[in-house]
Design a protein that fits this description.
Length: 495
Amino acid sequence: MLTKLLNRLSPENNNLKNKSVFFILIIVSFLIRLPFFFRDYIDRDESTFIIMGQSWVNGHLPYMELWDLKPPLNFLFFAAIIYPFGKSIFLIRLFGAIIVAITSFYTYKIALEVSTKKVAFWCAIFCIFFQSLFGSMQGVMSEHISIVFFIPGLYLILKHKEWYWVLASGIFMGLTAMVKLNMAYPIALIGLFYVYTYWKSKDFKVGIRNTFLYGFGIIMVIALTVLPYYLNGNITLWWNSVIEAPMMYANSKRNALLSFAPLLLVILLFLYLAQRKKIFDFSNTAIQLLSLVTIAVYLSFVKGGRLNGHYLIQLYPTLLILVGMAVSKIPVVVKKIHKVFIVLLLLIIPIESYVEYFAIIKNKIEKGTFYNGEGIEVTNYLKENNIDFNNILFTEYHIGYWFLNANPPTKAATHPSNICRSELFPYSENPRKTVFEEIQYILEIKQPQIIVKKEGSQLLDKRLIDENIYVNAYLEKKYTPIKTIGKAVLYQRLK
């Protein structure tokens, strides 16, 4: 039965139309990601984006009331969901599933330009898998949002030469950069590639026009994100938060360059062998651009100085196309075994989803709701027991701020780890200069009535020895633990 279904879905005879492909991708994305729609907390970054988006809905531009190290359009995605629909973690994750499907669909469209429909289809399916599994991919990350603009923009560059599509591609690239700044590197290299291809073809008039339109689209989007800050007299805050802080943060992490080398070598070796074995036609402009973008995206991680698993979301679409083309050239001796293997692989890959389906069903049986996680359970406990939570500090599970309609005690506490990054304080206009000053201000001046931390963990980064000694002594003197919920420990301030 599964083999018959696989045959029906596999577009070997060009039976599937674009609408059908998109429908399949939506269904696959939805089914794989659905059980994670009910979990409160998947990644710290996603929780931060949500409360930043809520602050915008409440009338505060990003960086004015709360602060995080991302461009403003990242937070606009969440604000645009919260504003019309209210607070719904389900809907945020649902829209996340939709943008994963859109990215995968345009991965399919790009693959059609360089390969067969069958290869394109499976590249799109695996694009969903790699954007949805293996780590914190189940949440809605900034990489998901940036790539949903980047891949359609790349498709327009490959497919259309009319001036208005070139302008549209520039707008998409501007949106990409204003969600995730590291993508400025591949975006800039695409612009240089524009110049190279038109110089090579000696079509200088069209080349100058299209390069200008591409750049204009990017600059227009960036200018529109600056405009509200200019009108409010806070353009310096925009510059410091969007440009200066990320650059400084990246430079401070430039100590793990060797950790990037293995995967970079694998990519370069793969492209070299593909060229030697003539798997790809490297005279094809589209193949050249896909290879360039793949390398440029990875080099942007190197420039950033660290490689988290969810960063690879930006790498997968173009890399999967190239890998898919190479795999399609590998001869298969027994076709039936090949199909059985594919069926088994497709069944095994979403094992994280199966586990989460089991977890939410178990939670429904035991607690009467599919929604689960310390962020939800802690906030329910505080409400049910009429505990004052208006003045609260989360050093973990900080999606709780959102559920409680509360704010972090300071800008630096918006993302819990930012309390420990004193090098970022000047860019958020924080008057405190050191981590010690910041945590001392929070504990002794703001005096949160409730503090939530993770069981078995220090309140601050474990490398901050003196600061943690101070915090632990202060907690022992001024607070008492009142409840442990899952891995969350609640401390209440003594009278």
